[in-house]
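#structure-requests
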Amino acid sequence: MSRTLRIGTRGSALALWQAHHVEALIKGQAGAPAVELIRIRTEGDVRTDVPLWQVGGRAFFTKEIDKALLNNEIDIAVHSLKDLSTILEQGIGLAAALTREDPRDAVISRTGVRLAELPRGAKVGTSSLRRRAFIARLRPDVELLELRGNVPTRIERLQKGDYDAIILAAAGLRRLGLDKHISELLSTEEFPPAVSQGAIGVCMREGDAEAGRWLQKLDDRASRLATTAERALLRRLEGGCQVPLGAIGTLEGETLKLHAAVCSLDGSRMLRARAEIAATPTNALSLGQQLADELLMQGAAQLIANERTARSLAAEGP
């Protein structure tokens, strides 16, 4: 008889939705084992007093779950793939990238208006450097404010009047049945999403054949190829911190396309690159690296370095 598979997850409503979704996909297979969900608190859940970009290191929402996986306290780790470091802990493998939900960003405004229709000086909430940069480019006249908390809490704060609009991932809103609040879905051309946004990543210990047996069927080819290219791009550009980068990979027939942009936080400068290649796993890695190199040739390294210097000074205060 198969052993019970223990799924490690954060305790937020969205994280639990994702974990239950994986549980249902496993249970839907013939001869499936019993599944148990284990909630784990992460640094990102605990440190709600400061913006994430001011917290040193990486893997704010994943490292405690990864530790439990390596310590054999769980068998499967379920993450929003965009939270997962591009360099996995030794001994952990990405077993499946699930079918991707809508990768776009969504505007939720208190009055239902679109981003372009917000009044001058409107208060817009987001915890993402990427969203701050692209908003500053499209609407330099609005006031950007930090926004932390789970998805329902962020919507409550908007409705209370703390903000005139907030920007969230459409995927999370759809999964929680909150997409009725969406005022606008932002174009991936003008507002490219976070790397792997909308995709769920499922990790396991390398060599765990029993877990792999049930997870291999969950891996979606289009999602895996697109996010592999996006993550390869980010890995070459990043240095352990958030980067004001948006990227979107798409599979069209047997062609894999990738579009990416890096933007200064004040929105004054944006670098773009796009390319396509025959869709294979090896080519997906190459495509991401190729686009990263193109952005670096355009000056992305200096742009990112400038932003990090500015953020370090902001974190230190006067």
